[in-house]
Amino acid sequence: MPGRLKRITLLCFFLAALCLFLPAAGGEPQQALDADGVKSIYLLPLQGVITAGQAAFIKRQLDTLDPQAVQAVIIHMDTPGGLVDATLNLSKAFAAAPVPIVVFVGPSGAIAASAGAFILVSADVAAMAPGTTVGAAKPVALSPGGAEPAEDKTINFLAGHMRSISRERGRPGDITERFVTENLTLSANEAQEQGVIDLLVPNLDALLAALHGWEGEKGGQLYTIITAGAPLQEQKMTLQERFQDRISNPQIAFLLLMAGVLGIYFGLGMPGTFIPEVLGALALLLGIYGIGLFDTNTMGIIFLIVGFALLIGEIFTSGFGVLGIGGAVSLLIGAVLLPREPLMAEGWYASFIATVVGLALAVSMLSFVVSTVVLRSRRGWKKSGAFFRIAPVAEVVELLAPCGTVRMRGELWKACSEDGSTLQEGVRVAVIRQEGLTLYVRAVDGDTQAGDTQGKESHSPG
User: Fold this and answer.
1) Which CATH number fits the domain 28-237, given the four candidates 3.90.226.10, 3.20.20.30, 3.90.950.10, 3.30.1300.10?
2) Of the residues 18, 204, 283, 340, which has the fewest C-beta atoms closer than 10 A?
């Protein structure tokens, strides 16, 4: 079993390292204009629970796009809701974007529930497919006992915010605020009839056809969307954003927090192996990152520091490779979450990640070697009944009366004289047996420094 576990873990580390070198989608240079001089259109997916990772992905795309190369962004959405902070960040990013934002809820059967309703209303152009639904945006608070209604002040704030966004986009604020206060739900046809959305189209091709020639105003500037002949570029998440998306899922983040607390608790209650403490600490940090207590840049630095600390701890403690493996994992996570600065060359990050991966794999291999040796020693111990090699002769370094300390193979051991006699310092003794970490010894024949307590008692007066 230890050999199989080692091979599986080695394969996991290899795959994790390989993922770091895969080209990140969405990082390709933007195409300026096509042959007819038409700007491209970005297509960004927004599927499932809205997390901090998805918000970071869309915000990065909006912050880095070139308005001279891109004329509009289409958000293809199907979501049951998500985190409030991520939703509000997306709403602000839409307002600050240099190009119009089109949100399309599709295909048929898709929903824009809860946080999705906020995102749809925040768009410059809102579109839905027949058979889709929007609404039910009343906030809830997550707790260990389950979901609970949010406080009235939170509901009132979000309802006012929904109304403000709607009026800014020319939508009926009295209707959209009921998404929050009354959990109002509208079908696509009802949303169009009441002015909540602008377009009702069956699919993405029909949306592009309906958007051709669409005129509007954004940031005090008039715009016209030209979709005929415009390149449609679908953007995807980077490795960092995919990682953040998975971890920031509320359910996963909560499970990681619980696993981290339990790991540290059991580790402190049963010290010695370091396995529960290391796994618990990593899970706790990931859970803290998932709930959004620290941003990506901060957590990347924290994981790098923790990784180096665990590697140093492996050097100075008998962690049997556990601390080294935990340090390697922490370094890999820190490399993925490494903060990026615009003034740093892109090649620097690639070389840094390669260095971290190489160090992590080297430490992991070394730790596995140490772990393998320890496991083999334990198997030998179970067969022979003795974990340590016992030498036939030791030397007393602290008076045995009848128990004290002896030196065996350069190590200090607790020892007791087998017959209860007193043995002076410097006496050479034969090791008779071992019980746990205690040796039972007797003086080597012919050693005159041994003191026999029974003999002394026989010469006492009386």
Assistant:
1) 3.90.226.10
2) 18
